[in-house]
Design a protein that fits this description.
The protein is of the alpha+beta class. The protein has twelve helices and five strands. It starts with 5 loop residues before the first helix and ends in an 18-residue tail after the last strand.
Length: about 350
């Protein structure tokens, strides 16, 4: 502290207080360091802590002095009075300026009093036409009709035709000279949706096939169950290019027999492959393999979800277990179609 390094002195005093927290002299020393750093309020707190350990008059005086310095620092420096030797001269100039201002006020008041005593001639207020300049008064004409004015009235503006013309409905929007546009409200026509029409059978409902739907239907419809059974006309697709999700529904012919479940699952795998190759917008899909029952009702034989990444990771001809457990998720086989590959008829979907 004697060398002027107050920060090092404060750190050294802090370390000493950690070892001797009840040393009154150390608290007083910390207050002296903070006082020297002009931290008056902190210094007063350390002096008070020292007084609690050792109540002396010296610590009381130091604390009072620190609080006084802190109060003065918050108020700021007191203004100092400057003895100006030119004060009499300034007072003289201020007096002269006050007299001059008073004289001006008196002159203005006298002038207003004289003007108020003279009688003034009252004139009637001028009309709007009189307020215009002479050139504008000569050019004033009678008002013209803006809308519905006949051609004869527009040629002779001095005598406009005031007979109201019958209102009529304009056939279409057109522009007339010196008039506004006349328009007729057009009937609303629903927007058309451009579609691609092919030989595929559209799905049920009022929504037509889009370009994405048609591309997928064509690709899947080119597949075959065997050499004699094709899938054309038995495929429905709905593609959402914004989310990348598609739903495929394939009708299983009655001629497909034998190991029905394995044939249907393998055909669903080929359907997924063809869908991802036909449309790059599809990233995930649901395949539904349906069949018409003897009563004429359509039931779902197989349902499974898969993704493009999963199809690309498996080999071209995976075995049935790989298709059932890895390629498709949320797999479901209809128990009414027969037992599943594991010999168990399940009511709940396999996940």
């Amino acid at each position: 502290m004697a060398e002027g390094n107050l920060a090092a002195a404060q750190a050294e005093c802090k370390r000493f207080l950690q070892q001797h927290p009840t040393h009154a002299g150390a608290h007083e020393m910390m207050g002296d360091i903070l006082y020297a750093r002009e931290l008056w309020e902190e210094a007063a707190e350390w002096y008070e802590l020292g007084r609690q350990l050792s109540p002396t008059e010296k610590l009381r005086i130091k604390r009072r002095d620190a609080l006084r310095q802190a109060k003065q620092a918050r108020k700021g420096p007191e203004p100092t009075l400057v003895d100006d030797a030119d004060t009499p001269r300034r007072m003289i100039w201020l007096g002269i300026a006050a007299v001059a201002m008073l004289l001006v006020i008196v002159l203005v008041a006298v002038g207003m009093a004289r003007r108020g005593g003279e009688p003034r001639e009252r004139r009637p207020p001028r009309t709007v036409a009189e307020r215009r300049p002479p050139e504008a008064q000569q050019e004033l004409t009678s008002p013209r009709t803006v809308r519905g004015t006949p051609d004869s009235a527009r040629q002779t503006p001095s005598a406009p035709d005031r007979t109201p013309s019958p209102t009529r409905r304009e056939p279409a929007a057109q522009e007339r000279a010196a008039e506004h546009w006349a328009a007729q409200q057009m009937e609303r026509i629903p927007p058309r949706r451009e579609i691609s029409r092919g030989e595929t059978t559209p799905r049920r409902g009022s929504e037509p096939l889009t370009d994405h739907d048609d591309a997928v239907v064509r690709a899947v419809g080119s597949l075959q169950w065997d050499e004699n059974i094709r899938m054309t006309g038995q495929v429905g697709a709905m593609v959402d290019p914004f989310t990348g999700y598609a739903v495929l529904r394939v009708l299983v012919p009655q001629s497909v027999t034998g190991d029905l479940q394995e044939k249907v699952v393998r055909q669903a795998f080929r359907v997924a492959q063809a869908t991802f190759q036909a449309s790059e917008a599809v990233s995930s899909l649901t395949v539904q393999m349906v069949r018409d029952s003897e009563s004429g009702e359509r039931m779902i034989l197989f349902r499974g979800n898969t993704t493009r990444r999963m199809i690309e990771r498996v080999e071209e001809t995976p075995d049935f277990d790989t298709l059932w457990d890895r390629v498709f998720t949320a797999v479901q086989w209809n128990p009414l179609a027969g037992p599943d590959a594991y010999g168990v008829i399940e009511d709940e979907p396999r996940r």
